[in-house]
Structures are given as structure tokens and as C-alpha cells.
Fold this sequence. Notes:
4-stranded parallel β-sheet; 4 strands
Amino acid sequence: MGLGKTLQLLIFIAACLEENPAADPFLIVAPVSLLENWREEMAKFFMPKTFPLLTLYGGDLARLRTPNDGIDDGLAGIGLLRRDWLGNAKVVLTTYETLRDLEFTLAAQKWSAVICDEAQKIRTQMQ
């Protein structure tokens, strides 16, 4: 709607990280069509590296997945990420579909905040 909600949330995240650089990361869940918007807003309004960012989508996501041969047979197909998947990221940007597929890995991570953009997608994508 052009009300600046994305920018307001990014300012909130930046303030939290400025106050406490050791804070747990922030998870932003959005439809695929809005991932680039979040990245553009970060680049447009903030200095580079203000948000150490990890995008869990596409090629980046494929690179971080645990290979099936490295998973116990009982856990195969669950969709787990490598142990060091987070790296130094303070903001993780992902989709509702990825959240659903990686629920165990993402639920095990402690977050400072979880931000749901277009939250009505939860009803349709999480079923």
C-alpha cells in the first residue's frame, strides 16, 4: 500500500542490532514476489552490511541443505539445513513455502523477532 511498513520494520531491526550487536537474528517471511523488495529497501536506505543478510531461497537455499546421504534414514525428507547454515547473518529472508519445508530447522533457531509480510498467506501456504 506504500505506507512504509517495510522501511519501518527495517529501522526497528537496525535499531535493535545497533543497541545489541549480539542479538539473535531476525526472520522475515514473505511471498516470493516480495523478497526482492525487501533486499531493495535494505540497499536503498541503509549502508552496506547494516544487515548481514541470508536469503533462504533458490540457489542459496540449495547450497545450505544437508545432503540426504548425511541424514539418518528416519530423518530423510524432513528438509534440514547444514549445522552452520546461519553463518554471521543477522537477518534471514525466506518464503512461506520454505518456512513450511524447513520448519524443524527454523523452529530450532532462536529469533529476536519473526516478521510475517502478507501474513494472510499463512492460511493458504501452511496447510
